[in-house]
Amino acid sequence: MWLFFFLFWIAVRANAKEPLYGKIGDKAVLTPDSVVNPITSIVWKHGADLAMEWYGGETFSYRQFKDRGRLNISNGALTITGLTPDDSSNYTVEINNEVTSKTELLVISPVSKPTLSLWCEPEMTYCVLTCNGNTTDAELVTYRWTSGDITWSSTKEHNITKENNELWFSCAFENPVSFISSEIVFNPFMEKKTPYGKIGDKAVLTSDSVENPITSIEWKHGPDLAMEWYGGETFSYRQFKDRGRLNISNGALTITGLTPDDSGSYTVEINNEVTSNTQLLVISPVSKPTLSLWCEPEMTYCVLTCNGNTTDAELVTYMWTSGDMTWSSTKEHNITKENNELWFSCAFENPVSFNSSEKVFNPFNKKTLYRKTGDKAVLTSDSVESPITSIAWKHGPDLAMEWYGDETYSYRQFKDRGSLDTSTGALTITGLTPDDSGNYTVEINNKVTSKTELLVISPVSKPTLSLWCEPEMTYCVLTCNGDTTGAEPVTYWWTSGDMTWSSTKEHKITKENNELWFSCALKNPVSFSEFSEKVFNPFIKRDWTWMYSLIGVILVVCIIGFLIYKFRKGAAERRGQEHQERSDKGAAERRGQERQERSDKGAAERRRQERQERSDKGAAERRGQEHLERLDKGAAERRRQERQERSDKGAAERRGQEMLEMLPPVQNPSIQDSTPVADPKKSAMIPDDLDTRC
Question: 104, 107, 114, 129: which is closest to 30 by C-alpha?
Answer without folding.
Answer: 104
